[in-house]
Amino acid sequence: MRDALNVLSHYHLPRYKELPDIGLFSRQVIQYINDILGPILIQDSQLTATMIQNYVKLEIMPSPSCRRYNREHIAHIIAITILKHVIPIKQVRRGIDLAMRHGSISVTYDAFAEALEEQLHRTVLPVLVKKKTYHFEAYDLSHETTGLTYACLAYSHLLVLDLLLATEGLQGLNHPDENHSSTLNLP
């Protein structure tokens, strides 16, 4: 579990300009997204072709152009793959629309990527520290990123909880000379 938490604490989600923009077919998109999100996916939640078809059908994301997906599609799919774990799928579209009020797809996606990385780090770091009591530090929110921050915080908490349940809990960390009957102190 320590290895998984270390990966999460240093995870980097590609920024908008780093996403492929060469027109990928569905199979390629699925492989790409499952590869980059693999370390942070909640168990048994890999992307499938049916999921992408449903996202298009539900108008949560734009339709592909000539069966090919570009950078904008990939950004939508990445965000949907994460957000659907913390808000109902039909509300994901509303959440994306609200976030897009503050900027273009590239600006909004990059804000999402930064928020997710920051919340993963903030959630994982206290668990990795050799202490009996963990304190989650407070954070500043802007009007533009409040929704993204809360969604990413919720996802990071679900992800760490999933890891704790799938392993030996905090005992799985094997801290030397530590008896972990941990307490969580929230601000």
Count of extended strands: 2
The percent of residues in helical segments reads 40-55%
Estimated share of beta-strand residues: under 5%
Which segments are poorly predicted (pLDDT under 50) over 5 or more consecutive residues?
A: 175-187
- Give the number of helices: 7
Amino-to-carboxy terminus distance: 26 Å
Give the SSE map.
Layout: H1 2-9, H2 26-37, H3 49-57, H4 71-83, H5 89-100, H6 105-128, E1 133-135, H7 146-166, E2 183-185
Parallel strand pairs: 1-2
Helix pairs in contact: 1-6, 4-6, 6-7
Describe this structure in words.
By secondary structure, this protein is mainly α. The chain has one domain. Helix content is 53%, strand content 3%. It has a two-stranded parallel sheet with strand order 1-2. The radius of gyration is 18 Å and the shape is globular.
Task: Throw out a few tags for this protein.
disordered C terminus; mainly alpha; 7 helices; 187 residues; two-stranded parallel ribbon
